[in-house]
Amino acid sequence: MDGRRAGGGGGGRALVVRALYTISALMSDMTLGASHQTLRDEVTAELRRRILSGELGQGERLVEDRLAAALGVSRNPVRESIRILSTEGFVQVVPRIGATVAVLSVEEAEELFDVRIAVEGLAARLAARKRSPAAADRLRRVLEQAREAVEAGRLEQVADYNTDFHLAVAEAAGNSYLTLMMKPMLQRAQWVFNRTAAARKGDSWSEHLSLCEAVAAGDEDEAQARAVAHVAAARRSFLAETGRAR
Amino acid sequence: MDGRRAGGGGGGRALVVRALYTISALMSDMTLGASHQTLRDEVTAELRRRILSGELGQGERLVEDRLAAALGVSRNPVRESIRILSTEGFVQVVPRIGATVAVLSVEEAEELFDVRIAVEGLAARLAARKRSPAAADRLRRVLEQAREAVEAGRLEQVADYNTDFHLAVAEAAGNSYLTLMMKPMLQRAQWVFNRTAAARKGDSWSEHLSLCEAVAAGDEDEAQARAVAHVAAARRSFLAETGRAR
DNA sequence: ATGTGAGGTCTTGTATACAGTCTCCTAAAC
DNA sequence: GTTTAGGAGACTGTATACAAGACCTCACAT
């Protein structure tokens, strides 16, 4: 078309190789925190971590220059990260004005539980329907890690393992778009969790265990019911802590 | 902290002004296709449009240089757009290799219906619960536009109005994260719609109307049931067209 | 003929540079 | 005293430049 493709010009085999890379990239991204290959990925993860941990407070301005300097990179990776975090709802971007950490009102936090009940209920049902032994094993492994973290009193990690468990359920559902959608949703849930539900950090474990059993047993109705009950319990706890119990 | 904030350094009033801008930005983005203020927004919208329309085929490579040249911009806005579309699931990015238009297999397209049933069912229920007259009016207006488009035979626009209707339901639910989540989901649904369900382009209108009525009446159960039935009907139609009917 | 390595081209990732815009502060005019 | 123009500073948006990696081609060895 435009004469640029003069030389070698992407042949057919490139696509095969690319597909392989795609698979490995997905695997690494799903199983672990991902072995970051680019600065942008690291910056995104770091900014997200700082937002979730509260290191970057709600409403705080995100000035590209300063973040770039603080992280030792140029503005470009920072900009792309901010755009990504914006689509995930962690950052509010206003054209030509700037970006700020999103403000999560109590009402919005509460609204999130409605979405989670619908989506996580579906994920649990689909996971039970699949009834994959490998997925069940993974759920148990994550639960074990969470239990150890609770016993060792490493409370910061408990939140991470909680999210990991929910993410594992999402992936066990075997629905790629559901997984894509749930990742940011669960991180948002962790954001809420980090700010409020300190008291509940032990409780959720037994609920996770019972959900895990229902999934492993392939009982769709029970799995969905337990997932829904689990999120509903978290909501009650949240409402109680924020003084808006009904 | 770091001595940079020497000069004026964002005072207190800036936040007020910024809040106003935020509101107007949200409004324009929600009500219309948004009066794009930056090249990046335009590029994102254009690329998304080309993907949804099939102009950019599934699996097609997205070479930053070429897209930038084709759109008459530099690589930067294109890169940011690609990252955004990646989080929405329209583009598959592999570090250091490149980006391609996502490949939506028949199985993945089918899986999307499961998610839609759960999410759109919730949206309809919440919208009915809100029972906002303004939202109901908006639903009727979109329906009217869709009807006119059907009668005038402008089939390309029918798909857009369909999506508009579903988006209006999402916004009527008054749950900000649900809206954020549903926007890309509905666009993905339109992607599927554009490729297959040509035959159903008239049918959906009556189903939309009945959903609209249930929402306006504030009947939560009925609204959810009709939304679920609507998506389920679309799935049946999809399965029939792809020859995978059960 | 098949497998293997070096060179070249293309493309991405990152950094830097420039232009436009927004905000704030100051100062003059009414 | 209040309001309104003007200018300086800061930050975003966009473009350009440079570095590094990946893929293809071709030659060479087995």
Summarize the structure.
Two copies of one chain form a homodimer. The first copy, chain A, has 246 residues and is mainly alpha-helical.
CATH architecture of the largest domain in chain A: Up-down Bundle
What does the main sheet of chain A amount to?
Answer: 3 strands, antiparallel
Q: Can you identify the CATH class of the largest domain in chain A?
A: Mainly Alpha
Percentage of residues in strands of chain A? under 5%
Structural class of chain A: mainly alpha
| Residues in helices of chain A, as a percent range | over 70%
Large-scale geometry of chain A = globular
Count of separate DSSP helical elements of chain A: 10
What are the key terms here?
3 strands; mainly alpha; 10 helices; DNA-binding; 71% helix; Arc Repressor Mutant, subunit A; homodimer; 2 domains; 246 residues; Four Helix Bundle (Hemerythrin (Met), subunit A); disordered N terminus
Topology summary:
The structure is a homodimer of 246-residue chains.
Chain A: H1 13-31, H2 39-53, E1 61-62, H3 64-71, H4 75-87, E2 91-94, E3 98-101, H5 106-130, H6 133-152, H7 155-172, H8 176-195, H9 204-217, H10 220-241
Helix pairs in contact in A: 2-4, 3-4, 5-7, 5-8, 5-9, 5-10, 6-7, 6-9, 7-8, 9-10
Chain A binds a DNA duplex (30 and 30 nucleotides) through helix 1 and helix 4.
Protein name (chains A, B): DNA-binding transcriptional regulator, GntR family
Pfam families (chains A, B): FCD, GntR
Domain HTH gntR-type (chains A, B): 37-104
